[in-house]
Design goal:
Elements: H1 2-20, H2 29-39, E1 47-51, H3 57-64, E2 68-72, H4 76-85, E3 90-92, E4 107-111, H5 117-131, E5 135-140, E6 151-153, E7 156-161, H6 164-167
Parallel strand pairs: 1-2, 1-4, 2-3, 4-5
Antiparallel strand pairs: 5-7, 6-7
Helix pairs in contact: 2-3
The structure holds S-adenosylmethionine (SAM).
Amino acid sequence: MTWLYIVGGVVVVLGFTAFFGAPYVPSRRRDVRRLFMNDYPLRSDDVVLDLGSGDGTVLRVIRQAGARAIGYELHPLLYWVSKVLTPGVQIRMVNIWTAPFPKDVTVVYIFSVGRDGNRLVRKMQREVARLGRTVTLICYGNPLPGRAPDSAAGPYLLYRFRPLHLNKP
Ligand SMILES: C[S@@+](CC[C@H](N)C(=O)[O-])C[C@H]1O[C@@H](n2cnc3c(N)ncnc32)[C@H](O)[C@@H]1O
């Protein structure tokens, strides 16, 4: 019977991966720790949203760093695994492309932008316009297309997204 559950789990994971095209690979914990503990230290009033939060690896480091973590994860199995492994952290089973950002978000983290780079830029622009303030986007893996990062830290690229009215002189 156990093997049935295992096979079923694998089928569900692969099925979602094939459908959404975003494989599940967690960030390397030591990279996340170096980022949020040293290179980009979080403040206690930071609210960090992990877009596609997987098993919650990044959320747990954010919490350890003393900031508030929020995860958006569409895959039901990963959603429930992360809920169990990361009690007390807000995780929503939503689609990152349609769910609005939390109103108090200050930093957005994403692993593997890949082919969705332009879509992510549009999403960020829409959300900072709606919120009316600047939000930092941290990309792990791939750069955003057609946009120079504001800074880099190891494998991470950091972009500051400002609402258009804040760009005017
Ligand atoms: C590369 S993993 C990164 C996991 C985690 N952020 C980390 O760095 O350890 C990407 C995650 O995004 C999730 N995902 C892919 N498309 C999504 C979507 N449209 N909405 C919500 N989650 C999505 C996948 O299920 C997967 O768990």
